[in-house]
Specification:
The protein has 256 residues and is an alpha/beta fold. It is built from eleven helices and six strands. The chain has helices spanning 37-43, 60-70, 83-90, 93-102, 115-132, 149-155, 167-180, 187-196, 198-214, 226-232, 248-252; strands at residues 2-7, 16-21, 27-33, 49-53, 144-146, 184-185.
């Protein structure tokens, strides 16, 4: 099995791609920084899952609100709902479920700084769809799946405070991760890259989340949300333990 992870930025300069090969007794990792969409699309047909750290779509209510406003029609002002109404426009169904599962709101694709990257993601999903020969299922029913590295790490029991902005914190977090996943073969060059670059680090976590999804170890889209998830996207949050992702050979002491 091969899985890939993308830490997407608004521009290729800040985008990182990680590919993990799970076929042996160790999971070997390759990471590339400054990755253009064409390179990501080329990888897509060769991997079992491709985890992308970015919202795959916008909230249905937000799209309807903007569309009505653009057409000069009266918009729903929310009446007395206030903050609840604004949150309904700001957050997708998957964001609300993620809040219930993790206790934290993801960034809003409609109102936070994630918007520019989501515009990039929409174009990337088109390129991936062309490479795969079919449109991407934003609900995660195909190769590409939306992931959330920080929530993934917290779900596996790691403290993520400060890891995005501090090399020392990131190195300590990496040490804790490798202590629980000794089968993750980074090599000295990739290890140093993960310490120096939060983009590279998140790309690897995205590839691990993609592995969890491929093994059926993520929360499924709840019944009744499937159609909405195909439009808005759906975050694949892992269930179970990081250790359960180990290559077959590492678990059984035989070739994977």
């Amino acid at each position: 099995m091969l899985t890939a992870g993308v830490d997407l930025a608004a521009e290729p300069k800040g985008t990182a791609l990680a590919v993990i090969d799970w076929s042996g007794t160790a999971a070997t990792v390759e990471v590339t920084l400054g990755v253009p969409d064409a390179a990501i699309a080329r990888v897509a047909p060769d991997v079992d899952r491709l985890g992308i750290d970015c919202a795959f779509g916008w909230p249905d209510d937000f799209v309807a609100f903007v569309t009505r406003h653009a057409e000069g029609l009266r918009v729903d002002g929310g009446g007395a709902e206030g903050l609840a109404w604004r949150r309904r426009l700001s957050y997708r169904a998957t964001d609300r479920v993620t809040r219930e599962l993790t206790g934290r709101w993801p960034l809003s694709v409609a109102t936070d700084r994630l918007g520019l990257t989501a515009m990039h993601c929409a174009a990337l999903l088109d390129a991936i769809g062309e490479a795969l020969g079919a449109p991407v299922d934003r609900a995660g029913g195909g190769t590409a799946v939306e992931v959330y590295p920080a929530a993934t790490l917290r779900g596996w029991g790691f403290d993520t405070r400060g890891y995005k902005n501090d090399d020392g914190v990131r190195e300590a977090l990496l040490d804790r991760l490798l202590a629980r996943a000794p089968w993750l073969d980074l090599g000295s060059t990739v290890r140093q890259l993960l310490v120096s670059s939060d983009d590279a680090f998140d790309a690897v976590i995205a590839a691990l989340a993609a592995r969890a999804h491929a093994l059926g170890r993520t929360h499924p889209v709840p019944r009744g949300y499937r159609d909405q998830a195909r439009r808005e996207g759906w975050i694949a949050l892992p269930v179970g333990r990081l250790e359960e992702l180990a290559p077959q050979g590492a678990r059984r002491g035989e070739p994977g």
